[in-house]
Structure prediction request, 491 residues.
Amino acid sequence: MIRFFQEVFKPPYELKEMFKQFFEIGNKSLGLVSVTGFIIGFVLALQSIPMLTKFGAVSLIPAMISISIVREIGPVITGLICAGKIGSGIGAELGSMKVSEQIEAMEVSVTNPFKFLVVTRVIATTLMIPLLIVYADAIALLGGFTALNILNGQSLQLYFSTVFSTLSFADIIPSTIKTFFFGFAIGLVGCYQGYNASRGTESVGIAANISVVYASLLVIILDMVAVQLTTIFV
Amino acid sequence: MAMINKSGIKDKSVNNKEVVIELEHLKKTLGGNEVLKDINLKVYRSETLITLGKSGSGKSVTLKCIVGLMMPTDGKVNVLGEDVPNLAIKELRGIRKKIGFIFQSGALYDSMSVRENLEFPLVRHEKLSGDEVENRVKEALADVGLEKSIDTMPSELSGGMRKRIGLARTLILKPEIMLYDEPTTGLDPATSREISNLILEMQDKFKVSSVIVTHDIECAKLTADRIVVLKDGVFAEEGSFDELQQSEDEFVRGFFQ
Prediction:
């Protein structure tokens, strides 16, 4: 982490590689994030309808869905999915580069491999994962509406006016800020495991596996810290 | 200049005696195991030195110490007049610009096409226009006979082609010294001979000083000006191909049988 901050502000900035990583991490994860986001919202609404109908509180479902998704479920579940897809991808990619001597080849061709491979990927995850999470939140809200519309005939206008009147900056800002930390942790763990993979093909699998485990764990720990801080300051 | 004699063996005379690489009492310990115990070696300008030795004897470690990928536990590594272990990273990169390193696996960047692999070192070290970069890439690929592979991905290439592209990527910067880490390993005899001939052609064309680590005795026979044999962390014997073939040391003779 110290080396990352030492290198990140020094030229060259490897912008071409960075934009390539934005595409790899952001665009190529859209499909998975869309499907899971929609299902999260849909299932949440589906589970809530019978229970809240008993209490005559069906009208509260859009508010409940929006708060749950924006504050917790959206960021954490999308963070965990990104830890699985992106963290393991980075760990395996850098691990295989290490094993096949590509990182050493980069070093002898007078390119700083840490800057080219690690800094670009960590910046990309730090910036793209929050975008993916915001996008997943929006899709999850749409999933919630779909379930309510199918089962209760809820209108789009009423659903989203309730959602937006319920959400405040105190819900959105802290939960968005924590996603930058999720992205940073996922990128850093994947890069660290891959970059430091020991020799042998087995180490590639190990790097990918450990990246997922540690990145997922860090997402949950960071979320817990963020919730505590939010409770204190907001 | 090294010439090929009638028997296909290079003339062993070294006309220019300028030392480009000098190792003095080089020692390297890895994981508690003393891999290199006392390596002393001089490589002269434009000569081709072959290093023979068993697997795990420290041949590749020696190459990595020369290029500064590994730091010696003790001893001196002098390359082109610079004390490699004591160089700052900026100076070390300056020296590395003059050294080409061919890895055992070819070490092509999997996520880049052949064109991007060759452009990668070029655009970082030389300020060239797009057309000049394109011409240099095509020229380097023509040197290794793979002009048509310019837009293929490394995964689509055979082992021999990967090694040729690796050679082209290294030579595109016109280095003064070439280090080859088992350039013919994993190839069939015909392709190994092609690679050895290619190394020889490149040696004659670019007049580089080369250190080749290999087990391939045919490659050694074709390319060597001088051969050293590594045994138990020290160079056991040094000489021409013919001299070492007649060595009294059974270990040394073993490589030539």
In short: Chain A has a mean pLDDT of 92. The longest helix of chain A spans residues 113-152. Chain A touches chain B through 14 residues (CB under 8 Å). Chain A is about 85% helix and 0% strand.
